[in-house]
Amino acid sequence: MLGELSPVALVLIDARRRILEANPAAESLLKMSRRALAGRPLSEVIYHDSPLFELIDRAQRQAGDIMAPGTPISGPGMHSRIICDIRVRSADRGAFVLALAETPSRESSDSVAGAAGFGRILGHEVKNPLAGIIGAAQLLERQGQADQSELLDIIKDEARRIERLVNRLSAFELFSAPRLQPFNIHALLDKIIAAERAANGPKVTFQRVFDPSLPDVVGDSDHLQQAFHNIMRNAVEAAVENGGTGNVTIRTAYAAGLAMKQARLGAGLRRAMLITIEDDGKGIPRERQATIFDVFQSSKSGARGLGLSIVSEVVTAHGGQIRVDSEPGSTRFTVLLPLGDGTEHG
Residue limits of the Histidine kinase domain (predicted)? Predict the structure, then answer.
């Protein structure tokens, strides 16, 4: 039996996505009895355009729980769309347990539903101009000069990355639900450095101090590229804040002996990859350092204070940690990303 007294709706589905079992909370949420639910395809109970089905697809492709807060679901038995925090967990023989906790606040539910709709509109409206940008870059690549190829590669790579992020946003996928794959952290950082060099020219000197023996990190490369680009963009802006020139140093290293206990990637991880991004700007006032990762906290003119809150969300979702150390002439952001037990250094 699935948690008879649980306030969370629990639904067990088989590999064909037919409902095997449901608890009383699921009966209440889906407005159907356990007997009526048994044996039904999930798509007959929850409309197939719900992001829930994408979460199940992802659970079939990767290990570990898949979580998505504030996800809309609706179905023929429901009077209106419901916003739920969802967890998908694999069970025996290709089955999955779906845990759905309804968001209690109607105000927040309406807000999240509106955000989902906005995400889909954004995806539709942004993808066409992105395709035009990629096409124009490809045309210039065929007609352009050899020394322009690096800049055109940056345009194409960044446009495709934005397209991927928009596709994921339009599917209402959040930074708190990364897609984990191994990738080379230095290749990712080099892409960001190249983009910032192209944008700022000789105003900023970038110094790379990379540990070449580091293994691949297991993470969501698009999400982490967004996070590190936000940090580096802030560093560049700080370094040239007064219209002069500045320096940004990017370091990677292996950090041992750290207790990093994050449920998503496993408890008791003791090894981590360390990435620091340091600038020689005027620094961050001490009173702001404690709240710098909070949403809507920014000292920039016209800024909305979202960049570093996204950084914090992405790093936390990867089981990592982030801190900032700042004084006049030196601001250093340090990110620790865990390395799993099966990953060997060297």
Answer: 121-341
